[in-house]
Amino acid sequence: MKLIGALCILAACIAAGRQQARHLQKRRLFLRGAHQGLLALMREIDYAATPMHQALPAAAEMAGPAAFIFSDAAEKLASGDGCTAGEAWQNAIMAADAVHEEDKRLLALAGEGLGISDAAQQLKTLELLRLRIENAEAEAAATVASYGKIWQTMGWSSGAILVLLLL
Q1: Using one digit for the tens of pLDDT, what is the confidence trace for 84-94?
Q2: Dihedral of the CA atoms 118, 124, 130, 131 (nearest 10)?
């Protein structure tokens, strides 16, 4: 009976450590998807001269884990409420519960002038945001590399310590 309890405690601690490591990895993947989505949005604006209500869904296809923000902004823009692309973008970001607060603030920078300024100004704004997201993604990758292993090790070792204390 003690052995089964010890194994359950150990398994729960290992699972908790892995869950924390996965949480860090999800943020990195989200930032990578946002980066890819912004690149696609920039291509649509620059080369295809696509209107924003069509460019956002095209960017969502490339955004991977961040696609829901681009799709939500496109839906809000197409809903006919009379909001600008920037307002739709801001609303989509604020409605995203699964996004880290720091990432929300970063992505909110794209909403300034989106859809109401000329293409060159929009591209400058998006390029600046893309560079900031690229830096945030590099920081998140470094965090995953160091803290991801730490969380997994902490889960294993805390479970082992608890088992030893209870035996």
Answers
A1: 888 888 888 88
A2: -170
